[in-house]
Design brief:
Oligomer: single chain
Strand content: 5-15%
Largest sheet: 3 strands, antiparallel
Distance between the termini: 94 Å
Number of strands: 8
Radius of gyration: 26 Å
Shape: globular
Order of helices and strands: EEEHHHHHHHHHHEEEEEHHHHHHHH
Number of helices: 18
């Protein structure tokens, strides 16, 4: 079993809060204690947006220490805890079961929740992860396996005393699957309202990132203006951009794979073309200039030149905290795509063109982005066509007509 640090109840924690106004998260809470085994001084700190949040974090650590759970163990990320305790968590299962469980852990649980401390994985966080898997097109069996391995890891954390209840035990998750699918029937509700909201979000994310890296904001704006997935934005190469007609040919996406990140074909397995609107052209031109003449150079990278994923964007910009602060609690990275498609539909882009831009296999999927009034008119026209077609009688052949005479 992985090591779980314990503190005797009698050991106290020394806590303090430092205000650093020049930082994006200006209140740094710090806790210090004496390791009872090594007699060495240890410390742990975390930055927060407000003094109240810092006090709450310290109070939580004090309460955990009273239960014998040390700060280091309390703050351990889910990904690290799962890696250290996976053998125990999956004990008793057959290999044919562990393989899909481990795939679910690696490809879905860790990217969605792995950055959170074990103790911070809440029922709401699990619900949002579940919704994200469904939005990404995961099958019921895939969602089942991903939830099952999460339940087992969190159950081990409960046994270790890190948590008091298992937040991954979603009762009736099939109903949650149906509910999420129903919500996806109205993706317009997930979109940002306007251009001001988008640029405000981009600026806030940059401000919250380490070093205020402007590239994070550019990725967000580009994704929304092109209705693209974050993985597709990461996959853009210089040679994919036509600056004469201002068209982006979407050919690939960056996705997690067993060997790390890999560039693969788009979700629809076929290339598609997306217009680059005037608002985003200066941004694209600047990125092209910075990338140089190599047609295979990436247009968007992280601050150190690395590939971007939705998890990287989330962690680097403190996405979850920023969107809550801005009043967009529901907003996920994938909702930037919903934003772009909603805006295009409202701008009057024809349905068949919108379908090509989105890369949808079904016209019904694209139609969900239409304004309800326009959708009603479209459905009315389709109903009339169906009625006329079903009632249409083929005209008689000339021979038949003569015989009747």
């Amino acid at each position: 079993m992985g090591h779980v640090e314990r503190l005797p109840v009698a050991v106290s924690l020394a806590c303090d809060i430092e205000h650093r106004p020049e930082r994006a998260l200006p209140y740094r809470a710090r806790v210090r204690w004496m390791d009872p085994q090594t007699r060495k001084r240890k410390s742990l700190s975390q930055s927060h947006a407000t003094r109240e949040e810092a006090h709450t974090w310290l109070d939580t650590l004090r309460a955990a220490a009273l239960r014998g759970v040390g700060p280091a163990a309390y703050a351990q990320p889910l990904a690290a805890y799962g890696e250290a305790n996976m053998t125990l968590a999956l004990r008793g299962l057959e290999p044919k079961t562990t393989d899909p469980y481990l795939a679910g852990w690696r490809l879905r649980v860790v990217p969605s929740l792995g950055h959170l401390p074990v103790t911070a994985v809440s029922n709401g966080a699990v619900d949002r992860a579940l919704y994200g898997w469904i939005a990404d097109g995961c099958s019921r069996s895939t969602v089942k396996n991903s939830l099952a391995v999460l339940v087992r890891v969190m159950e081990q954390a409960r046994r270790d005393g890190l948590i008091t209840h298992n937040p991954a035990r979603v009762s009736g998750w099939q109903a949650e699957y149906n509910k999420a699918e129903d919500e996806l029937d109205n993706p317009r509700a997930l979109a940002l309202p306007d251009w001001k909201a988008l640029t405000g979000l981009a600026q806030a994310l940059v401000a919250a990132s380490h070093g205020h890296y402007a590239g994070w904001g550019e990725v967000v704006i580009f994704a929304a203006c092109t209705a693209a997935r974050i993985g597709e934005v990461s996959g853009v190469r210089v040679g994919d951009i036509d600056t004469v007609n201002w068209i982006w040919t979407v050919r690939r996406q960056t996705t997690p794979s067993p060997g790390g990140l890999a560039d693969k074909r788009t979700k629809g397995k076929t290339a598609r073309r997306v217009p680059l609107i005037e608002e985003v052209r200066p941004l694209v031109a600047a990125r092209l200039l910075a990338a140089g003449p190599d047609r295979q150079a990436r247009l968007f990278t992280g601050p150190r030149g690395g590939r971007i994923t939705t998890a990287v964007l989330r962690d680097a910009t403190h996405w979850d905290e920023v969107v809550v602060r801005l009043g967009y609690e529901h907003l996920r990275r994938h909702d930037l795509r919903h934003t772009g498609l909603t805006w295009m539909a409202d701008a009057g882009v024809p349905l068949h063109v919108l379908r090509l831009i989105a890369g949808h296999g079904s016209l019904a999927t694209t139609q969900r982005y239409l304004h309800p009034d326009l959708r009603s008119l479209t459905e009315a026209g389709r109903s009339l066509s169906t009625h006329l077609t079903s009632g249409r009688v083929p005209p008689p052949t000339p021979g038949t007509a003569r015989r009747r005479l």
